[in-house]
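2024-03-11 09:14:02 DEBUG pipeline.ingest accepted 1 chain
2024-03-11 09:14:02 DEBUG pipeline.ingest length=142
2024-03-11 09:14:03 DEBUG pipeline.predict start
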Amino acid sequence: MSDQLIFETANFTAEQASGYRLPGYVIVQLKPPGTQLAALTPAQSAELTACLAEAERLVQELVQPERIYLMKFGELVPQIHFHVMPRTAALAAAFQAETGDQPPFNGARVVAWLWEHHASLGHTDAELADFVTRARASATLG
């Protein structure tokens, strides 16, 4: 089992993102090859919905962010995957301090800023591991 794995179903995994140092930044990814949602079977589509709902629930419960962003891009990794990103008050404050933007924030700008500055937020390996441990214990899927 991966150190970042939170839960796994027949067709999907949910993991703490290894590329972004933000506890609760979860990637839900399709296990079999696939790049288009329209190609999923009805059962896979239902499973994806359940996985996204579970990931969102875990992030809300354990991180308690002000907002949760759900995103599908497929630029660098074409395999179907979704980013579940908590926008916490601390993240918003860091973003606002650097950009001068005022609420309500443009979520796409917040995400782009986070991707460039996630390491500067100071989250430790222990915090990331703690989120994974608590999320595994609270997960109802997998």
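2024-03-11 09:14:41 DEBUG pipeline.report The longest helix spans residues 42-63.
2024-03-11 09:14:41 DEBUG pipeline.predict end
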